[in-house]
Write a structure and sequence with these properties.
By secondary structure, the protein is an alpha/beta fold. Helices cover 29% and strands 20% of the residues. It has helices spanning 51-54, 70-79, 93-101, 105-111, 143-153, 167-173, 175-181, 183-187, 199-205, 215-222, 242-249, 259-268, 276-282, 289-301, 391-394, 413-423, 466-478, 483-489; strands spanning 3-7, 55-56, 59-60, 62-67, 87-89, 119-125, 159-165, 191-192, 208-211, 227-229, 330-336, 344-351, 378-384, 398-402, 429-435, 438-443, 448-453, 491-495, 498-506. Helix 5 links the parallel strand 6 and strand 7 (159-165). Helix 4 crosses helix 9 and helix 10 packs across helix 13. The longest helix is centred in the middle third of the chain and has 13 residues, at 289-301. The termini are far apart.
Length: 508
């Protein structure tokens, strides 16, 4: 997928056309920026391979045009034969860094707070009017409406969502505007991934990628991730390009149908090797780009390469731990799964729409998987203390806060919980989450309890949001059960197919 030019003196940079974002267009119409994905407008030259990009006064601009695969060389010879003599096949360093980091997938998943049993859905958009974030009339304005729907339809403890947007989207509109457009989805738990440093890690960690014709989606397919195409302007692509072939192979997202069923089908019915042909066209020299590029650089300079020093690429960094923290209201359904034994409570949580503070939640706030059919389930509302709508706190059954136990501004947890219950008489449980697997709760009856999720057999902490454990305890107590039963045997919280054992102990 990599196409680059190494420019040689005294050539000057060409005038490549309009570069200023059109601020009246959601996606500024500056053309596709992703390296050679085969983008072209009808009747226009192929992006990156045409004389407009590669020649000045009929001469090649670059001393070397770096290609990742021979198929690009064939298209270069057809589109701009004058530049074919500058071609250097040197693989794809971006792809090589991804391949080298594949063994660390579990670490990248944990960095995003993805727990065992959760599915990570990464939504990606490139840079063009026909992209997922674009406003091309033929595709619709999908992404800003798609992301809140994902939050509302996917149970929070069974799915994690993240968005990877092309850097030029951020640059063209500004970070403030992007965050404003995606505010609802962010407050519902969406992670906005760093577009320069951490997007590769997100692809490696993903269970499913919803994307378009950009190279990020192509990389996802190449490393074996199930892909759903949310937008794909096939008529604007070179039909002979690998990306156009991906568009003929990958399934399409039906944006106005239920999203969960489509995502689950894409993951559950994915056939390994489905995108083998796409992977083969990313690079003709996987794992070797650093050495090939260094050799090309030193050949241009005219000096020998350093002896005894291997050419290396920077490894992908491990992102900071950033679990989901929802400041949007959360609609919670609970059900006691076994009334005869120790407390076992099924919990399904979904971010609620930001309607007026007095609106009731309906069973259709959940997806169509049957978990929200209302039969045998009890409902309550959990609200983050930092919700933008303070009116939500007035009707909240559970109020949640995340922070360090020794935070002098709001802690300790016992004092904060007492303050919250005193301020909000309708609240039945105040929950202070202090870290992975840990929270302190105070009940309306005055019981102060510590909830601690038992770690995995390998000692790693349970990454399920402790607020889900607290909602299970709230349901247990609201059903007339006593805290002593939970303290004596602990509780089992069921999210999807995963059972979480949670110890309950009195803090006082």
């Amino acid at each position: 997928m990599e196409l680059a030019t190494i420019r040689g003196w005294p050539h000057r940079t060409p005038d490549t056309g309009h570069r200023t974002p059109d601020t009246g267009h959601r996606t500024p119409d500056t053309g596709h920026r992703t390296p050679d994905t085969g983008h072209r407008s009808p009747g226009a030259p192929v992006f990156g391979l045409s004389p407009d990009w590669l020649l000045h006064d009929g001469r090649p601009l670059a001393a070397a045009t770096v290609l990742s695969h021979p198929e690009q060389l064939g298209r270069l010879r057809a589109a701009c034969p004058e530049a074919a003599g500058t071609a250097v096949l040197a693989g794809d360093p971006c792809y090589d860094r991804i391949l080298a980091a594949l063994p660390y997938r579990d670490r990248f998943r944990r960095a995003l707070g993805v727990a065992p049993g959760q599915r990570l859905v990464v939504v990606n958009s490139t840079w063009s009017p026909g992209s997922l974030f674009g406003d091309d009339d033929s595709e619709g304005d999908l992404l800003p409406s798609l992301l809140p729907r994902l939050a509302a339809e996917l149970p929070a403890d069974e799915y994690r969502t993240a968005a990877v947007l092309h850097p030029n989207i951020w640059h063209g509109h500004g970070p403030g505007q992007i965050r404003a457009w995606l505010d609802r989805a962010r407050r519902a738990g969406l992670a906005l991934v760093d577009p320069l440093e951490d997007w590769r890690q997100a692809l490696i960690a993903a269970d499913c990628v919803i994307g378009d014709h950009g190279s990020v989606t192509y990389y996802a397919a190449a490393i074996g991730r199930p892909v759903l195409l949310g937008a794909f302007p096939g008529g604007a692509l070179d039909p002979d390009s690998p990306v156009a072939a991906l568009g003929r192979t990958a399934p399409r997202l039906r944006p106005y149908d239920g999203l969960r069923a489509q995502i689950d089908h894409a993951v559950d019915h994915y056939e390994p090797g489905r995108y083998r042909a796409q992977a083969e066209h990313v690079s003709s020299a996987p794992g070797r780009s650093a050495g090939l590029l260094r050799r090309a650089f030193y050949d241009l300079i005219g000096i020998p390469e350093p002896a005894g020093r291997p050419a290396l690429l920077d490894p992908l960094r491990l992102p900071s731990y950033a679990p989901a923290e929802r400041t949007a209201p959360v609609h919670v359904l609970t059900r006691l799964t076994d009334a005869s034994g120790p407390p076992e409570i099924a919990v399904v949580r979904c971010a609620a729409d930001d309607g007026p503070a007095g609106e009731d939640f309906g069973d259709d706030d959940f997806g169509d998987d049957g978990s929200g059919d209302g039969i045998g389930w009890d409902a309550h509302t959990s609200v983050h203390e930092d919700t933008p709508d303070p009116g939500r706190l007035r009707i909240a059954d559970v109020i949640v806060r995340y922070g360090a136990a020794d935070d002098p501004r709001v802690g300790p947890p016992a004092a904060w919980a007492a303050e919250v219950l005193g301020r909000h008489p309708g609240c039945g449980l105040a929950v202070y989450v202090t870290g992975p697997g840990h929270c302190t709760v105070r009940t309306r009856g005055g019981d102060l309890l510590h909830l601690t999720a038992r770690p995995a057999p390998d000692g790693r902490p349970d990454l399920c949001d402790p607020a889900a454990h607290a909602s299970a305890l709230h349901a247990w107590l609201a059903g007339g059960k006593s805290p002593e039963e939970a303290v004596s045997s602990g509780i089992t919280v069921v999210t999807g197919r995963v059972h979480h054992r949670v110890d309950v102990e009195r803090a006082d």
